[in-house]
Amino acid sequence: MNVNQDLVTDVIQKVLENLLEEEKSAVAEPLGDGIYQTIGEAVEGAVLAQKRLISMTLAQRDKMIAAIRKAALDNNEKLSAMAIRETKLGRFEDKIKENILCSTKTPGTEDIPSFAKSGDDGLTLLEYAPIGVIGSLTPITNPTGTVIHNSISMIAAGNAVVFNPHPSARETSISLVRLLHQAIVDVGGPAGLISVVNHPTLETAREIMEHPKVNMLVATGGKAVVNAVLRSGKKAIGAGAGNPPVLVDETANIRNAAKSIIDGASINNNIFCTCEKEVIAVDEVADCLIKFMQETGKACLLTPDDAKKVTELVVTREGGINPAFIGKNVQVILKEIGIEVGEECRLAI
After folding, report:
1. Gap between the Cα atoms of 293 and 281, Å rounded
2. What does the pLDDT read at residue 42?
3. How crowded is residue 273: how many other Cβ atoms within 10 Å of its Cβ?
4. Rounded to whole angstroms, how far apart are CA atoms 311 and 298?
5. Distance between CA atoms of 283 and 288, rounded to whole angstroms?
6. What is the pLDDT of residue 27?
7. DSSP secondary structure string, 81-139?
8. Which residues contact 230 (CB under 8 A, 6 or more apart)?
9. What's residue 16's pLDDT?
10. What Rg do the C-alpha atoms of the chain give, in angstroms?
11. pTM for this one?
């Protein structure tokens, strides 16, 4: 029996179009660009958007990613100021740097190349496949950088993303998702490819973790949220709290080490889990390291008595951290124990 290949192709295409239209009619309209009332509505929109995404070319995907990068950079100062104002954590100038880094250095489709190999035993073709819908739980510490990075990398890999931001970073996160969503749609991308619930809470985070149509979870945050996603039964990636030490010995470039430690430990007032939290130096270089740290002009050396006062100020009797001083400038902290330092100072050592 002869089969008309063009006819078969047309029938398949029409069936797929009808299925997409039926699914579209079942999805609630968002409140705004990518903003939904419920997690269920957001996930249904993401399922449909992801199906459309994988039917598009990589070149079209590249246009969406380029639009995301441009939108984030064009609105960098506004987003950075909004994050500082809402969360009251970090430094404006460091938020600027963070957003530039995430916008320009997050890999796109160049990170998922196809691989083909032929030989006596035949042909092998390797192509990376998308996960589907990813639930992304984002933190209060870097709400803009995480959303920018996850949007670029996850869309590049062919996925849709439903964000659940930290409630204390709600306005910043929703504004950013709206901005990036509009950038995607403006270049022909599917609506709902990135989305967020209008009122994120712990309950909506739980709904994302338990939703059967969410294929993977990615969480950036504290120990509790990371443990929750890793125990969810879904494929999951968790980036939790960190306490990174830095070791300096006699083989190091001491001046460079001093500058790098000060810059790394003070960025956004040490709220990132990747920031250096303590320094371990061998006796041979310890004094020299401290001297070079001071010479950066960004570090204030505390006396043992002052260090004790700071410790008693920022660490509670139960061993926790006093929330009033998390992410605050060193000037604010030292002023509480009677020490005034200039604006150039970024770190107390």
Report:
1. 13
2. 96
3. 18
4. 20
5. 10
6. 46
7. HHHHHHH--S-HHHHHHHHHHHHHHS--GGGS--EEEEETTEEEEE------EEEEEE-
8. 236, 238
9. 56
10. 24
11. 0.86
Question: What does the DSSP assignment read for 218-267?
Answer: EEES-HHHHHHHHTSSSEEEEE-----EEEE-TTS-HHHHHHHHHHHHHG
Q: 187 by DSSP, 3-state: which? A: coil
The CATH architecture to which 245-348 belongs is: 3-Layer(aba) Sandwich (3.40)
Query: CA 257 → CA 5, 281, 295, 313, distances in Å?
Result: 66, 11, 12, 29
Are the C-beta atoms of residues 139 and 221 closer than 8 Å to each other? yes
106 in Cβ contact with 149 (< 8 Å): yes
CA 326 to chain centre: 20
Q: What is the separation, in whole angstroms, between the first and last Cα of the chain? A: 83
pLDDT at position 21 is 57
Among the four given CATH numbers 3.30.450.20, 2.60.40.10, 3.40.190.120, 3.40.605.10, the one describing domain 27-111+128-239: 3.40.605.10
Q: How far apart are CA 146 and CA 2, in angstroms?
A: 54
Q: At residue 56, what are phi and psi to the nearest 5 degrees?
A: -95, 165
pLDDT along the chain (349 residues), means of 10: 60 61 49 86 96 96 98 97 95 96 97 92 93 96 96 98 96 97 96 96 95 96 87 90 91 96 94 91 96 96 95 91 92 95 94
138 vs 272: CA distance, rounded Å: 13
Q: Which residue has the tokens 């002869």?
A: 2
Total residues belonging to the chain: 349
pLDDT at 5: 63
At which residue do the structure tokens 């957001």 appear?
Answer: 42
- The residues spanned by each domain of the chain are 27-111+128-239, 245-348
Can you tell me the distance from the alpha carbon of 39 to that of 46, in angstroms, rounded to the nearest whole number? 10
